[in-house]
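Propose amino acids for all 77 sites.
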């Protein structure tokens, strides 16, 4: 379950179509922010990917005024 398959129609190719938002996404609920960082890789990659650091940095900067920021990452960095 840690890997996705990059083929068309696979979970990686279909994520946004199925769920309606990209794998990297942020939710703001009142004064709190939940940043969901994708760490999925194609099953054939044989590696774990780190979160996209530039995207993550920008999200933290954008929401720095929040009362609380929760960063969700499946694979610890």
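Proposal:
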């Amino acid at each position: 379950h840690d890997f996705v398959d990059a083929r068309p129609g696979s979970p990686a190719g279909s994520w946004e179509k199925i769920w309606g938002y990209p794998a990297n996404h942020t939710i703001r609920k009142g004064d709190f922010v939940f940043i969901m960082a994708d760490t999925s890789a194609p099953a054939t990659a044989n590696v774990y990917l780190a979160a996209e650091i530039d995207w993550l940095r920008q999200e933290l900067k954008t929401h720095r005024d929040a009362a609380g920021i929760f960063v969700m990452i499946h694979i610890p960095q």
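The mean pLDDT is 82. The two ends are 17 Å apart (CA to CA).
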